[in-house]
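Thread: Newbie trying to understand structure tokens

Hi all, I'm a second-year student working on a class project, and my supervisor (Dr. K.) asked me to get a predicted structure for one chain before our next meeting. I've only ever worked with sequences, so writing a 3D structure as a token string is new to me. If someone could post the tokens and maybe explain what I'm looking at, I'd be very grateful. Here's the chain:
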Amino acid sequence: MFIQTENTPNPATLKFLPGQPVLGTGTADFLSAESASVSPLARRIFETEGVIGVFLGADFVTVTKADSSEWDHIKPAILGAIMEHFQSGQPAIEGEAATGHADHDGPDSQIVEQIKDLLDTRVRPAVAQDGGDITFHGFDRGVVYLHMQGACANCPSSTLTLKMGIENLLKHFIPEVTEVRPVAV
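---
Reply by user tm_fold:
Sure, no problem. This is what the structure looks like when written as tokens:
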């Protein structure tokens, strides 16, 4: 098995590509070893000292390290954990992966559907290329609330991505959108 790695815009995060499906559909974001109890793959990766986050995508794994750790020191252990997992035959996650967007019903449901459609077709594929995901969390009085995961969470360029990229895109296609804000879940 050959696992490729790619740098992401977030220097604390590295994208691992095992060359086969990880989740297939959906995503899973684990911000601690305790939260990874449903994922045999994430549990193995968290055994590496210095790992503080694991994000599972359709065909990639994004790992976030502590500032005190160096990629040169922990990357071999992470590669080994990923390889061991895929050789074990265990699933990446026990149960269903998150589908992404929060539900929203009410008077703005048509606007919310447009927002979700633009996120799914124009934003999420590009963000997945960088090892992350962005999901809809809410819409209130013109403000769109988005949740950033994987390489996008705590990325130095995340504010620029939200304001200059996603906010401008949504405002262009949906006049009711006045602002985009990140949320922590």
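A couple of things are worth pointing out once you decode it. The chain has four helices and eight strands. The chain has two domains: 4-88, 109-183. Feel free to ask follow-ups in this thread.
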